[in-house]
Fold:
Amino acid sequence: MKDQIKKRRPDLAARLEHEVKKRWQPQIRARARRTAATTGGTVIDTRARMGYTAPIGSTDEDRVRHLTVALPPHSAARLFEAQEAGATDQQLQEIVAEGLKEVYFQDRGRRADSLEEVRFTDIEHLGFDL
Structure:
């Protein structure tokens, strides 16, 4: 169409933009998800009530926390797979809770070995960055 149209046509420009986004955006999102699930992981920003089950004598009381942490690629992969399989919000919350347990509460295996379960409830805010 180059040099065939002399005057700008807003309707044509809008249709072209729509078609480009329709084809381009899903590919970009898929590539970002693949990268997050294999090498990059995903960053989660949340404000929610969190607590955990641990041996007697530890402070396991639920409280509202605001966390921004990087979940590892295997947690991101589990989350994406569950989402694509039609998992419920509760199932997705459990996967996020397991990722938070590993990264935040256990510091990737450097502490809290005896931690059994992390509770992730009363979510006020939850955001992901690929």
In short: Residues 35-129 form one domain. The CA atoms of residues 105 and 112 lie 7 Å apart.
